[in-house]
């Protein structure tokens, strides 16, 4: 029981914390990887930790169906579909994105998992129409927010923080700096509060990949807008989980975030990020994705090279999953162009 909420055990926990010897030697910083890409169902990822808590809440409330929303290539949607399939619930994903013209990456997996995806041009009306349809069919819908980021989803990462703190102490890196991706914020905020809860001396740096400012290319505006959104989320969590008591004592100054790795837009194809993906694959055989973890590992590499991460210090890169993203058309096309020289067709 965590802050009044229980969960259903879906995952094989703890996920491993691995030392990455080759990149550590190369960059002069001691780099570890928390393998939250290995969380289990349907190619894994961070959202499953949140879904353990959502599933319990949904079943307790008598739900027959999970519905969620996100981008067409939402990893969170795919994992919501996975959990629903495994636990005998129906599921649907609603997206305001346009149909991309092909059923690839997460969309392919959504279909395999038996989960319909509704492409609505206007989220507000479209969402209501889809929800009305399922209500008329007699379904009791449990709505999981975008990215699973509310006070319930966050609990999965409050719990993960204690798991990681224990592993870091056992591995002799109790004050390492954790680099984690910030999208809809639940993973970062859960980690922040969880580290406080267990009295950890681990540090936390959030790498933002989802612009919060209107001008998505303005890194400073993004930082300001994200900090304000995080503060609102924190205040809501405080109310809902702790009855308004400030059990964590967080101030906006506690949010340590980098916005320079957004590269101007969410889920865009960026050649430097692909180079980082090749680097980690070729040094450690770990595959990261172009939307989330590629940008976060780029931050680890850049900060190691610039000395922002001091030589010899320990850093933990949170691998939050997202593998299907490499098969999204606009990423796959660029990857294929760059990887064509590896194909030797009829010549030796
Ligand atoms: C692979 C991956 N990593 C990181 C994140 C970011 O997590 P959060 O939305 O909790 O900030 C997401 C969110 O969709 C994700 O899919």
Question: Can you offer a commentary on this structure?
Answer:
The protein has helices at residues 21-27, 47-60, 75-86, 105-112, 123-136, 155-170, 186-197, 219-242, 271-284, 293-306, 329-339; strands at residues 17-19, 30-35, 65-69, 90-95, 117-119, 141-144, 177-182, 203-208, 257-258, 314-319. With 348 residues, it is of the alpha/beta class. The termini are far apart. It has 11 helices and 10 strands. 42% of the residues lie in helices and 14% in strands. The protein has 2 domains: 17-45 and 150-339, 3-Layer(aba) Sandwich (Rossmann fold); 47-148, 3-Layer(aba) Sandwich (Rossmann fold). The model has no long low-confidence stretch (mean pLDDT 97). The strands form 2 sheets. A 6-stranded mixed sheet has the order 1-2-10-7-8-9, with helices on both faces. A 4-stranded parallel sheet has the order 5-4-3-6, with helices on both faces. α2 crosses α6 (155-170), α6 packs across α7 (186-197) and α9 (271-284) crosses α10. 47% of the residues are buried. It is globular and about 60 Å long. The structure holds pyridoxal-5'-phosphate. Residues 45-46, 75-76, 147, 149, 181-188, 292-293, 320-322 line the site of pyridoxal-5'-phosphate.
């Amino acid at each position: 029981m965590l802050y009044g909420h229980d969960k259903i055990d879906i995952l094989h926990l703890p996920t491993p914390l691995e030392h990455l010897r080759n990149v550590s030697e190369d960059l002069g910083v001691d780099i570890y990887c928390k393998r939250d890409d290995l969380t289990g169902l349907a190619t894994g990822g961070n959202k499953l930790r949140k879904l353990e808590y959502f599933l319990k809440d949904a079943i307790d409330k008598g739900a027959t169906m999970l519905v969620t929303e996100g981008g067409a290539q939402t990893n969170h949607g795919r994992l919501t579909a996975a959990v629903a399939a495994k636990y005998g619930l129906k599921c649907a994903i609603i997206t305001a994105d346009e149909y991309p013209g092909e059923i690839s990456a997460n969309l392919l997996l959504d279909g395999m998992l038996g989960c319909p995806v509704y492409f609505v041009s206007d989220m507000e009306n479209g969402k209501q129409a889809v929800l009305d349809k399922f209500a008329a069919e007699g379904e009791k819908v449990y709505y999981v927010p975008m990215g699973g980021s509310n006070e319930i989803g966050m609990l999965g990462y409050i719990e993960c923080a204690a798991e990681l703190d224990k592993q870091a102490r056992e591995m002799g890196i109790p004050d390492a700096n954790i680099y984690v991706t910030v999208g809809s914020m639940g993973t970062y905020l859960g980690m922040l509060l969880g580290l406080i809860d267990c009295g950890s001396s681990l540090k936390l740096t959030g790498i933002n990949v989802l612009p919060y400012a209107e001008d998505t290319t303005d890194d400073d505006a993004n930082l300001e807008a994200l900090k304000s959104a995080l503060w609102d989320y924190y205040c809501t969590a405080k109310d809902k989980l702790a009855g308004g008591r400030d059990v964590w004592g967080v101030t906006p100054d506690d949010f340590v975030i980098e916005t320079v790795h957004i590269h101007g837009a969410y889920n865009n194809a960026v050649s430097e990020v692909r180079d980082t993906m090749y680097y980690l694959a070729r040094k450690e055989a770990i595959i990261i994705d172009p939307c989330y973890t590629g940008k976060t590992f780029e931050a680890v590499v850049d900060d190691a090279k610039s000395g922002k991460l001091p030589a010899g210090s320990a850093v933990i890169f949170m691998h939050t999953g997202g593998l299907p993203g490499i098969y999204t058309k606009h990423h796959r096309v660029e990857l294929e162009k760059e990887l064509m020289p590896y194909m030797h067709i009829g010549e030796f």
